[in-house]
Structure formats: C-alpha cells, structure tokens
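Slide 14.
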Amino acid sequence: MLKTRRLQWERNEDKMPFLPGQSGNPSGRRPGTKTRKQLIVEQIFEADASAVGKKAVELALGGDMLAIKCILDRVAPAPRGRKVQFHLPQVSSREDLVGVVNSILRAASEAVITIDEAASLANAVESGVRIVEFAELAERVVALESRLS
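Slide 15: predicted structure.
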C-alpha cells in the first residue's frame, strides 16, 4: 500500500510535490517569531496601553459591567479547580483499584466532589493502573529472564 501511495504522490507532483509528513520548508519560521500583524498590534498597544488601562478603570468605576468583568477576569480569574478532601485508598496492586473507584463514586454520590472532579480522579486512577501494570510486566520479564539464564 505504501508503494502505491508513493507512486500516486509522485504522479501528482504538480498538485502535491511533497510526501505526507514532509515539509516544503523544513527550516521554517523559528518558534516565538512574531508575525507582522503581531508586531503592528504590539506597536499600537504599547503607545496607548496606559491610556487604555486608565479608561477601562474609569469605565468600571462608572458602573460599566463589561469593563468590570474584563478587569476582574484579568486581575482575579476564576479558579480552575478546588481542593477536595476525602479518603482515597492507596493503589499498589490491581486488587486496590476496585476500592479506589468505589471511593470516588461514593464521594460523587454524596456530593463531596463534583462529577467533573470524579472524572478527573478516575483519569488519575487510570494512569495509576497503567503504572501498576507496567511494574507487574517488568517483574514478569525479570522472572522469565532469570529462569532462562
């Protein structure tokens, strides 16, 4: 299949001269390099940044709710998460996983944590599962290697 695809790409050189995953400009623009538009916006804003800030504060003090919201969103953004405290058993083997998931479900059903927080914790548990599985596989490989030696 790869061979036919390559031939197909070679036949369509007028339309697509590069293979999939191959850049036409491998060196490209360096990361962090600003575009002309970004440079122009920065120059305009630099000159009047102080005046714009003062005007926004003035409008907010005058009761403009949009100005208040803009300022508060920048100065004191809404927190992304909160601290939660509940007992979560330690995961050291596969047998512990059922207890951990049950603890998360119980905390969500009793409104100790939100459903979103429960989902985040379940994702963390899933990562723990992968770590436990990897450790178990490593132990099995070591045991097999010692038997073969």
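Speaker note: The mean pLDDT is 81.
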